[in-house]
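Revision sheet: structure tokens.
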Amino acid sequence: MTERKVIYSQMVSLDGYIEGPNQDIEWGKPGEELFQHFNDQDNNIDTHIYGRRTYENMRDYWSKRADNPEASKEEVEFSEVWNNIEKVVFLLQLKM
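Predicted:
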């Protein structure tokens, strides 16, 4: 049996929020050095695990980011890596 490592990662503010007051995530945009860290980390990952909403947000942004002429070198690299990684998406259905 092959051992696999699970790495949990999430960008969150010190007070526990993922998005800003207007439901934007611009506050958490990493600089060049941090972006390169994420790119290096994702180059060693074979599967991402997402909830449905996070996956849809990531897909909508990163699936086309490499084609955007305003994208930085790091964004293009991350987009290409992200699009090639296998993804598992969970859908939670609540019964009332």
